[in-house]
Write a structure and sequence with these properties.
It comes from Pseudomonas veronii. By secondary structure, this protein is an all-alpha fold. It is built from 11 helices and no strands.
């Protein structure tokens, strides 16, 4: 990176872009989907503060770094070939467009085409005609919200499926206590250990994270035969 003859305005824009990195880490990577699934899993089990939210965020961050490592490697290779030059706006813009291409490819592969099409149709109704005609499906201004909505939808779908076995346990325990005339005993007192036992017996954390890894179409970029028709829910593995 060259700092000789740096345009102060370009430098300010560059520093401002760096300040947005934490937000981009959440909305443009696998972090959003992973943290949603982990928090729903914690609520489904019934332990509201175990693991704590900070630990869940740390687990999601570690899993995100593992998933996004190949994308980061591709971006690093692009920057290595075309170093950042803050003295030239056009060169900096071209390098940025080339560096973001691996991330763009990742988001395209993990975005719902229907959501992307819906947002593209909305541009014709909400944007000026000249602007709406120029937008493409792979433009970041359209791709980022489509990716975020796709990850939110996928995360809640997986969370719903995770809830099912734990709800079944709650219903069975509640009916048993009612049949035995033990209305004064809280169903949570009995069902919580059973849900923890079930989760531990099926290696819940490892299966859950492994399924989240395989649910993201990242390995398709390098090994198309490996990641076809893989399950997205931990009890299917």
């Amino acid at each position: 990176m060259s700092f000789q003859g740096v345009d102060p305005i370009v430098l300010a824009v560059f520093v401002g872009a760096l300040s947005l990195m934490p937000m981009l880490l959440i909305v443009c990577t696998a972090f959003l989907k992973i943290v949603i699934v982990l928090m729903i899993t914690r609520n489904a089990i019934g332990v509201q503060q175990v693991p704590p939210s900070m630990a869940i965020n740390g687990i999601a961050l570690a899993a995100t770094l593992f998933i996004m490592a190949p994308v980061g490697y591709e971006i690093a290779e692009v920057v290595k070939v075309s170093p950042l030059d803050l003295s030239n706006v056009s060169t900096l813009q071209q390098t940025g467009l080339e560096a973001v291409q691996p991330l763009r490819t990742f988001m395209v592969r993990n975005s719902d085409p229907d959501i992307l099409t819906h947002l593209l149709e909305n541009t014709a109704r909400m944007w000026p005609p000249a602007m709406a005609q120029e937008v493409q499906r792979e433009d970041l201004i359209l791709l980022i919200p489509a990716y975020v909505l796709s990850q939110l939808q996928a995360g809640f779908e997986i969370g719903f499926l995770i809830y099912i076995p734990f709800i079944v346990i709650d219903l069975i325990v509640s009916n048993l206590l009612l049949a035995l005339g033990m209305q004064m005993v809280s169903p949570m007192t009995i069902s919580l250990p059973l849900k923890l036992l079930l989760f531990v017996m099926v290696s819940g954390w490892s299966r859950l994270l492994d399924s989240l890894f395989l649910s993201l179409s990242l390995s398709c970029l390098w090994n198309r035969s490996y990641c076809s028709n893989r399950a997205c829910c931990w009890w299917w593995c």
